[in-house]
Fold this protein.
Amino acid sequence: MSSSPAPTRRVSPARIRFFAGAIVSYLAVPLLNAVSPLLALPAITASYGSEAWAAIAVGQSLGGTAGILVELGWGLSGSQRVARMSPRNRANAFGVSLVAKAVVGIPTIGIAVWLSFLLAPEGFGDTAAVVAAAAAIAMFSGGWIFVGILKPRLFLYTEALPRALLIAASAVAIHLGAALWTYTGALLLASVAAPIAGGIVLKLRPRDFVSLSPRRLMRVIGHQRAALSSSVFSSVYISLGTAVATLGSPNATLLFASVDRLQRMVQQVVRPVGYVLKGWVGREVDPESRVHRAVRATFVSGSIGVVSGALFALASPWAAEVIFSGTVHVPPLAAVISGLSIAVMCTSVSTGGVLLVSLRRVSAVATSAAVGAAVGLPGIFFGAMFFGGTGALTGQLLAEVSVLIVQIVAARRRLRQIRETGRLQMQPPTMPDPDPLHGREADPV
C-alpha cells in the first residue's frame, strides 16, 4: 500500500516579505561598502596623485590585518550565541566584547599604525597611519549582533550608511580643495561612531563594561581563540597582500592594490549569495538532503563565480581608468589573472563555508586557509619582486587555487566515505565549553 503524499507546506506572504526585506538589507550593506570608496578615490587621485592612494591602500591593508585580531572571531562564534539571548544579555555581551577587543586592540592597532607610517610613500605617512587606525577600530562595531538577530537594517543604519555619507561628504570637500585629512578624518569618525551607535541601539549600560572580573575577561578572550584562529588563517594573506607586494617591490603596489580593491568590491557585492546559500542549506533537517543541497549550492556559487570573473576580466581595465582618474593601467594579462581569482574565490565560499560545514569537516576549512596563507604570502612577495604587480596578482591567484584544491579534496574524500557507508555518519557532539559570559554551559555551535 502506497503512502499518501505529504501535504504541501505553504509559505505565508508575511514570511516572504520578511526574507525579501532581509535579503535587500544584506545586499545594501556590501553595496554601500563597495560604492562608498568610489565616491572619494577619483577626487583623491585627481587632487593628490597615485602616491596618496598607495598610502591609503597600505593603511587599509595593515589596518585590516590588525582588525582581524581585534575582532577576536566574534562575528563567527558570537552571532549564533546572541541570537538566543535576551536583549539585556545581548547588551552585556556587546559590552564584554568591546572590553575584550580593547585589551587586544590597543597594542595591535599601535603596531599597525607604526608600520603603516613606515611603509607609506614619502610625505603620506600620516595618511596611512590614520587609515590603518580607522580600519582596525571599525571592528568594534555591533554588526555581528545585528546579523545574529536577523536585523540587517540596524547594521545598515548604524555602520554602512553613515560611513557612506561621511565618505561622500569628504569627496565633495576634497574636490573643492580640502586637505587629504578630510577623507582620513571621515573614515576615523565613521569607525568610532559605529560602536557608539550600536551601543545606543542595544541600550548598553556602563555596568556592562565592568560586568566581568579581569580573570573572567581573560577567559572570554581565550574562549574566542578557536574562532579567531579560523579568521586569521582565512584572512592573513588577503589583508596583508598589499603590504607584502610593497615589500617585494614598491613599483608593484599601485597595480596590485588597485586591482585588489576592485576585487574586494566585487566580492562584497557577491557575498550575500553565500549568506543565502548557507541559509538554504542549513534549513534542511535531513543530513543527507542537506549534503545534496550543499553540493548544488557549490555548483551555483561556482557558476556565479565564472560569470563574475569573466565580467571582471573584461571590465576591470576600464573601471580602473575611471575610478583612479587615469593613474592606473591594468594590463590584459593582469585582468585575466584577477578574473580567475574572482571565479575561484566565489567557488571556495561554498566549498568551504557551505559544503565542508555540512559534511562536518570544518577543520578542513582552517587547513585550506592555512595552506592559502603559506602559498599566498611568498607567492605575492616573489611575484612582485620578479614580475611587478602582475606577478603579485599571480601569487594571489595561486593562493586562492590552493585553498580551493584543499577544500575539494577534503569534500571528495568525505563524500566517498558517505557513498561507501550508504549514509552520512554524524560525529558525536563535543561537550560544550562553559560560557565565560554568564558562567553556564554554552550551546555548541
